[in-house]
Amino acid sequence: MKVKILLRGPLQKYGNGKRIVEVHLERSNVTVRDTIEQLNIPLSAVSFILINGEKKNLETALQGGEVVTVHPRVAGG
Description:
This protein is mainly β. The chain is 9% helix and 39% strand. It has one helix and seven strands, in the order βββαββββ. A five-stranded mixed beta sheet has the order 2-1-7-4-5, with no helix packed on it. The protein has a two-stranded antiparallel ribbon with strand order 3-6. Strand 4 and strand 5 form a beta hairpin. The N and C termini lie far apart (41 Å). 16% of the residues are buried.
């Protein structure tokens, strides 16, 4: 199974500069957290995620075929 990971802003560096990365899921019951960790993205750098356009949490299980959008934490003032 594969999912597409859409990396926003500075998170693109974890996709070797690519905005969209395909990740192969080698087992069932893979969560968004597992996939983010597979890409070596620190969880502290993630603000929120969308799966197929709907806000979800890190423990959401992936089935394959989803588009997971990962939004970075932002700071400023």
